[in-house]
Amino acid sequence: MKKYIIGLVLAGLIALLGLLSNRPIVTIYAQTLPITKTVTWDANPAADAVNQYDVWLDSGPHTVVLAVAPQPYTTSVTFTTGGLHTIRATATNFWGTSTETTLAVNVVVPAKPSGLRLQ
Predict the structure, then answer these.
(1) Which among 116, 113, 108 is positioned nearest to 29, based on CA atoms?
(2) Could you give the CA distance from residue 89 to residue 70 in angstroms, rounded to a whole number?
(3) What is the pTM of this model?
(4) SS3 at position 21
(5) How many other C-beta atoms are found inside a 10 Å radius of the C-beta of residue 85?
(6) Beta strand pairing call for 25-29 and 73-79
(7) What is the DSSP pairing of strand 52-57 with strand 35-41?
(8) Could you count the other beta carbons within 10 Å of the beta carbon of residue 50?
(9) Cα separation, 38 vs 97, whole angstroms
(10) For 22-114, where are the alpha helices, taking DSSP H only?
């Protein structure tokens, strides 16, 4: 019961964090890790002349998606741990790179068993 209450409090704090930062938080309930999900986004207007999009999960390596790919634009991200994660994306053209857009993701996994013992 105590773990359940702590879990509810943590979920409430994460939701409050999303409200305070004005960022939506997507929650994924994972039975096992790692779990892979597909990230999708809309193309920039043609006038932006974007030639690539870069997508990161947390501070890990980024994935480059060329703007010549068929739409909608997608890439996969793999979550290896539970908790709060951030997906970041930028658009690049001949003149430079955009500021980041972000999506907060809370990965919820079952709690580890407790009281493991031999009888």
Answers:
(1) 108
(2) 18
(3) 0.75
(4) helix
(5) 19
(6) unpaired
(7) unpaired
(8) 20
(9) 23
(10) none
User: Which residues neighbour 56 within 8 Å (Cβ) at sequence distance 6 or greater?
Assistant: 62, 63, 87, 88, 89
Instruction: Enumerate domains of the chain plus CATH numbers.
Output: 25-108 (2.60.40.10)
Say which DSSP state 107 is in.
E
Quickly tell me which residue has 């039975």 as its tokens. Answer: 31
Contact 24, 103 (CB under 8 A): yes
The structure tokens listed for 104 are 């907060």
Look up residue 53 and give its two tokens.
């999009």
For 59-113, write each residue's pLDDT tens digit.
998 999 998 887 889 999 999 999 999 999 999 999 999 999 999 999 999 988 8
Give residue-wise pLDDT tens across range 30-70: 999 999 999 999 999 999 999 999 999 999 989 999 988 87
Tokens 């939701």 identify what position?
15
Instruction: Answer for the pair 49, 73: CB distance below 8 angstroms, yes or no.
Output: no
How many Å separate Cα 4 from the centre of its chain? 24
| H/E run at residue 5 | helix 2-21
Q: Give the C-alpha separation, 75 to 72, whole Å.
A: 10
